[in-house]
Amino acid sequence: MGIYVENLVCTQCNKKFSLNEKIWKCACGGLLDIDFTSTFPVDTIKGRERTMWRYREAIPLRDDKNIISFDEGFTPLTDVAFHGKSVLIKQDHLFPTGSYKDRGASVLVSKVRELGVRKVVEDSSGNAGCAIAAYCAKARIDCEIYVPENTSPGKLAQIRFSGATLNKIPGSREDTAHAVLKAAEEYYYASHSWNPFFFHGTKTFAFEVCEQLGWKSPDTVILPVGNGTLLLGAYIGFHELLGAKTIDNIPRIIAIQSANCAPLYRAFKEDLEEIPEIEKKDVLAEGIAIAKPIRWRQIIEAVKESNGDFITVDDWEIKESLRDMCRKGFYIEPTAASTTAGISKYVRRSHPNETIVSLFTGHGLKTTEKMVKLLNE
Ligand SMILES: *Cc1c(COP(=O)(O)O)cnc(C)c1O
Ligand SMILES: [Zn+2]
Predict the structure, then answer these.
(1) In ligand 1, which atom is closest to the CA atom of 333?
(2) In this structure, are residues 167 and 146 in contact, taking their beta carbons and an 8 Å threshold?
(3) What are 322-358's pLDDT values in tens digits?
(4) Which of 321, 361, 367 to mutate to test the pocket of ligand 1 (most atoms within 8 A of CB)?
(5) pTM of the prediction?
(6) Which residues contact 330 (CB under 8 A, 6 or more apart)?
(7) Residue 97, ligand 1, Cβ within 6 A
(8) CA–CA dist 123, 267 (Å, integer)
């Protein structure tokens, strides 16, 4: 048997902290990761409830009594044809708040309760805020969400109906991030990009995919990337399964960015040492329009190590894919259609027998105003 570890560890200075410290970054300013040994008792798992918490031994929470859950997860893995090629799609738009962010929120808010924190702050372009607000409502933890002024009204309503305090910040997504960092000096930052517990929720995507394939990994996963909450989570998840010898290889990661906001694509393709300054444009895929993703090095490293690639999609390709998915009966939001547009591009060069897995990230009902506008174009 291996040695079981359980630590927060700084990605910059390597300092270790207990998982029960109320911190979200290192004193040196570095990002924190979680060093944690996951195990997968597959025979026991088989008999458990069909939720993401069936992988209990792989989730870094001490006490079951702190679990905040709506019995979410274990979403359907559905065969969808793209240009005649079969792609397996996790229907993660069917989560309680309408996006896969619930995976991260469930684990993070459970940990927040375990830490005895009474109030959190978070910033979001929408869906992460909706998820954190709903789980905090269930946990009876005070929650304040910072959003850019131009966030979809449906998402704002969802956040407010959960009882969270909403702060609309003028300017860019980066201005919002700046505002919340000030608030985070006083309150615990339940951030989906900084806080490592969020990623130890999104990693359950990888666990479910492999279990649904009979404890095998797919050849390829196609994932959207802005801040990388899903991409890095999936990467962690596949690595933990590999480390436990539950699967025997890591899938290739194909990362999708919106052509109007693609700093990671550029850094990857041009082998840059720093994340490039990019020109701000209007972005249809609001959920992945991140100019400066703080975990950018980790994201590029993960894609490289998996022998993967980056693909960008234009707004017209996103619209076309959105219409195509909706006509197939899957009502998804425009940001989710950036991933499906990327799938359409990728399958043109995939192998005939390649197992390709992707997902619907968010529900169309979240962005009704945008959908109505597209209908009238
Ligand atoms: C959060 C989100 C993504 C992925 O964005 P990241 O910034 O990489 O975490 C994709 N689609 C939707 C609908 C989202 O809410
Ligand atoms: Zn440090």
Answers:
(1) 13
(2) yes
(3) 999 999 999 999 999 999 999 999 999 999 999 999 9
(4) 361
(5) 0.97
(6) 80, 91, 93, 360
(7) no
(8) 25
